[in-house]
C-alpha cells in the first residue's frame, strides 16, 4: 500500500474562514532553505469581501494522535486472528488474546494493518502521532521493525514518533529479564524516540517501581521521552504509582530544561482522588518544573476500566457498571495540568469499538465530560490537536500555544473543512464554527489535509472543488 499522493507545495489559499471571525482570508505560504516545509508568510483579507462567509471552508490546525498502538490496530479485521474476538470483554482476556495474536505477528501483516491505521488517520487530518510498538520475547523486535518501515515510508504525510514499548513485565515473571534485554536492544535503534513501559503489569509493587526507575534512567541517559501506562485501575486499595513517578523525576533532576517530556497514560486510579490529592498533584508538578502530561483514553477506559468485583458487603450489585477516565477539561481548567486525549487502540480486544478519527474522540468528550459550550468544544479540539502535539514534545504549529487560529510564522499543517454534500440530496449543511465541527464531525471527504504545506490528494476532490467556494489553492 503506497502512502497518500501529495500535491506540490501550496503557495496560496484564497478565501477561508478562521475561528471567531466573520471575515474571509487569504493565506500565503513561503518556502526557503531554512524552512523547506514552509511557513505562513501572510494572512490578508480576501478580496472582494464575501457577503456570506459560511460558504467558504473553515481552516483549523491539523490533528494529532498523542497515544496510539500501531502494531495492534485492527487485529479483529485480520482473518488469522478471527478466533480471538472478545468473549468476556475483560482486561485479562484482552491481555491473553493479544498475547496469542502476537505469537502470529509477521512483518508483512504488521505493516499492512499499520497502513490501514495511517491511511484512515491521515485522511481524518492527523499529521503527527506517537505510535507504540511492542518489544518482548513473543515478537522480539518485529513490531519495532514494522514501525521503522512505516515511519520512513509515511514521513511526508505524517510525523511518527516511535515508542519502544514493554507491554509485558520486565522485572518479574518467567520472562522479565529476557523482555528487559530485548528492550535494551530496541531503545538503541535509530527509529526509537520514546521509551514506554507498563509498570502495573509487574507482579508486585517493588517490581513496578523498578520498572519505573529503569525507564527514567534509560530515557535520561539516551535523551529520549518516556511514556508510562500507569495506574490503570479503580481500586482504592492500590497505591497510586503517580506519586512514585513524580518523586523519582525530582530526585533524578528531570525538569523542563532537559527538553524531553514525560507522558502518563490511562491513570484511571486518579479519578478516585480527592480535591486535596489533585491539588497536591498539580503543586508537585508545578514546583518541580516537571514536563509531565496526562493523556486520557476514553474509548479504552470506558470499555475496560472497572473496579474490582468485591466480596461480601463490598460486592457490587449486578447493575453497577462504574467506569473511570481522566476528566481532561477539569484537569486543565481547575488544576492547570497538561492533559490531552488519545485514541489508544482500534479494532482489538482492548478497544473493539471506535475509529482512528481524533474528532470522533473530541465529540465523545462532549458527553463524557458534560462539556457542551462552544468554549468547551474549542478546548476539546485543542486536546486532539495543538495541545496533543505539544504534549508529545513536537514543536507547536500555532505561534500562540494552543490557540486554534493559525498565524503568520506558523508552519502549514492544517485542515480545511468544506461544506460538502455527502447525502446525495444536493444539500450541504454548514458547520460554521469549531463547536459544530466537534459536536458533529464532518465526513473525511469534507476535509482537506495539509502536512508541511502539501495537500493530501483524495477521491472526489474535484467534486468538492467544483461545489465549494474558497477552493482556489495555488501551487509552486
UniProtKB/TrEMBL annotation:
Molecular function in Gene Ontology: hydrolase activity, acting on carbon-nitrogen (but not peptide) bonds, in cyclic amidines
InterPro entries the record matches: Metal_Hydrolase (IPR032466), Metallo-hydrolase_Enzymes (IPR052349)
Record-given protein name: Zinc metallopeptidase
Species: Aspergillus sclerotialis
Amino acid at each position: 500500500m503506497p502512502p497518500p499522493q501529495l500535491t506540490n507545495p501550496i503557495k496560496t489559499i484564497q478565501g477561508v474562514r478562521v475561528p471567531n471571525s466573520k471575515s474571509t482570508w487569504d493565506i500565503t505560504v513561503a518556502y526557503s532553505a531554512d524552512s523547506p516545509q514552509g511557513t505562513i508568510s501572510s494572512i490578508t483579507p480576501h478580496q472582494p469581501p464575501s457577503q456570506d462567509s459560511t460558504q467558504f471552508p473553515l481552516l483549523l490546525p491539523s490533528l494529532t494522535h498523542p497515544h496510539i498502538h500501531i502494531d495492534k490496530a485492527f487485529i479483529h479485521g485480520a482473518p488469522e486472528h478471527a478466533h480471538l474476538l472478545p468473549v468476556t470483554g475483560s482486561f485479562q482476556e484482552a491481555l491473553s488474546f493479544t498475547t496469542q495474536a502476537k505469537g502470529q505477528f509477521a512483518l508483512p501483516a504488521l505493516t499492512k494493518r499499520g497502513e490501514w491505521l495511517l491511511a484512515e488517520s491521515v485522511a481524518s487530518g492527523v499529521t503527527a502521532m506517537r505510535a507504540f510498538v511492542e518489544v518482548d520475547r513473543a515478537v522480539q523486535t518485529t513490531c519495532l521493525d514494522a514501525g521503522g518501515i512505516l515511519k520512513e515510508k509515511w514521513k511526508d504525510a505524517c510525523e511518527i514518533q516511535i515508542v519502544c514499548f514493554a507491554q509485558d513485565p520486565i522485572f518479574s515473571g518467567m520472562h522479565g529479564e529476557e523482555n528487559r534485554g530485548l528492550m535494551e536492544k530496541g531503545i538503541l535503534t535509530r527509529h526509537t524516540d520514546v521509551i514506554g513501559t507498563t509498570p502495573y503489569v509487574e507482579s508486585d509493587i517493588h517490581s513496578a517501581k523498578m520498572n519505573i526507575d529503569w525507564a527514567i534512567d534509560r530515557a535520561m541517559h539516551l535523551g529520549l521521552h518516556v511514556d508510562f501506562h500507569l495506574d490503570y485501575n479503580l481500586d482504592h486499595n492500590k497505591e497510586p504509582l503517580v506519586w512514585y513517578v513524580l518523586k523519582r523525576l525530582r530526585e533524578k533532576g528531570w525538569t523542563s530544561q532537559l527538553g524531553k517530556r514525560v507522558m502518563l497514560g490511562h491513570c484511571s486510579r486518579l479519578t478516585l482522588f480527592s480535591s486535596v490529592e489533585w491539588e497536591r498533584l498539580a503543586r508537585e508538578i508545578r514546583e518541580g518544573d516537571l514536563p509531565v502530561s496526562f493523556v486520557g483514553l476514553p474509548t479504552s477506559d470506558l470499555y475496560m476500566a472497572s473496579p474490582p468485583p468485591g466480596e461480601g458487603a463490598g460486592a457490587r450489585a449486578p447493575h453497577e457498571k462504574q467506569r473511570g477516565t481522566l476528566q481532561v477539561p477539569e484537569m486543565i481548567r481547575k488544576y492547570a495540568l497538561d492533559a490531552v486525549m488519545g485514541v489508544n487502540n482500534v479494532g482489538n480486544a482492548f478497544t473493539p469499538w471506535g475509529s482512528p478519527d481524533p474528532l470522533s474522540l473530541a465529540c465523545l468528550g462532549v458527553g463524557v465530560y458534560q462539556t457542551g459550550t462552544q468554549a468547551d468544544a474549542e478546548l476539546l479540539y485543542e486536546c486532539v490537536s495543538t495541545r496533543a502535539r505539544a504534549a508529545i514534545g513536537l514543536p507547536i504549529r500555532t505561534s500562540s500555544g494552543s490557540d486554534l487560529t493559525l498565524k503568520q510564522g506558523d508552519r502549514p499543517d492544517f485542515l480545511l473543512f468544506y461544506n460538502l454534500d455527502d447525502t446525495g440530496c444536493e444539500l450541504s449543511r454548514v458547520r460554521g464554527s469549531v463547536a459544530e465541527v466537534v459536536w458533529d464531525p464532518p465526513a473525511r471527504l469534507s476535509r482537506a489535509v495539509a502536512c508541511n504545506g502539501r495537500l493530501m490528494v483524495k477521491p472526489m476532490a474535484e467534486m468538492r472543488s467544483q461545489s465549494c467556494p474558497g477552493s482556489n489553492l495555488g501551487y509552486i
